Amino acid sequence: MDQLTDEERELASMVRDFAESVVAPQAYEADRTHTLSMEVVAQMGELGLFGLPFPEEYGGQGGDYMALGLAIEALGRVDQSIAITLEAGVSLGAMPVFRFGTEDQKQDLLPDLLAGRALAGFGLTEPEAGSDAGATRTTARQDGDEWVIDGTKQFITNSGTPITRFVTVTAVTGSEDGRKEISTIIVPNGTPGFTVEAPYDKVGWNASDTHPLTFDGVRVPAGNLLGQRGSGFRNFLSILDEGRIAIAALSTGAAEGCLEAAVDYAKSRTIFGSALATRQNAQFTLARMRARVHTARLAWHHAARLRDSGRPFAEQAAIAKLVAGEAAMDNARDATQIFGGNGFMNEFPVARHYRDSKILEIGEGTTEVQLLVIARALGLAG
After folding, report:
1. Taking Cα atoms as reference points, which of 30, 19, 4, 31 lies closest to residue 86?
2. Which residues are catalytically annotated?
3. What is the pLDDT of residues 89-124, one digit of tens each?
4. SS3 assignment, position 129
5. Are the C-beta atoms of 252 and 328 separated by less than 8 Å?
């Protein structure tokens, strides 16, 4: 296992303390009322969490993806909605600007994003374009010195908060040799014709801000193009590769949160005159849960170290997301079983993890997409 540096341990411990003292106490009510606490978001900004993997020249902390993953894991252990708010704010909100933006775009947008004073969404998924993002139907045509955008997006995180500044949208901007030319364009919130629709009524991640978006003749300056024209498809694939590491870290935190809660409950729960933890079937269940956490953590640490050292990591990111997402879902199910009837009550965190964890096998690339990435790395492209 990769050994953490003293600085990394200090960061993980700091965020874990913050999660326990600030995030966990508000998690049940936030989930029940479907409310993202902007106070918690602001405090994460003050701690520098949104700026972790960015250089100091833009207001970042000068860290890397390993640091970001440690923070997300610590948050995911107690509240996945808050963890995904950070993950999406960095991986899908700020990172595209940092990776592909012009210097003017970086200077204009990054300081507020990295300080947590603003959030941004990434408009990729559409009703007919999920795993098959190449099926994008949203269009953008150039009219003089403006882009005119028409289309819809769905399941867009951080797109309708009080501090959301813009959404980066993938759109078809032309075609070449019968193939769609896909570009990415920055659309500020409040632009005429851009509508953030009502939030979803979701199974889980209820305190995470998620909306469908509509674009009806939306006009933005030509300078809002993010990256080179026609590079949107390639660019968002690289963004998703990095995001899969962060989702794997979140999943590991969720799996660990379920394990810790189940161990504590098994020790305190008396059944047939003795603690549930003395029963071998319970012990075996908890042991399997522990093994899943360990394996998931190894996987995302490895992918993060590869990414941060500049080595290829797409396959390892896919493996990490696959292993960790399944670990979170399996541990949530097993923890709920350990808790029995109490596991079905939303006041217990394992119930929230049970509802929240399923999306970890879907978002930022389904389990099937990860298997496809891994198969291709084996030379099995079909």
Report:
1. 19
2. 364
3. 999 999 999 999 999 999 999 999 999 999 999 999
4. strand
5. yes
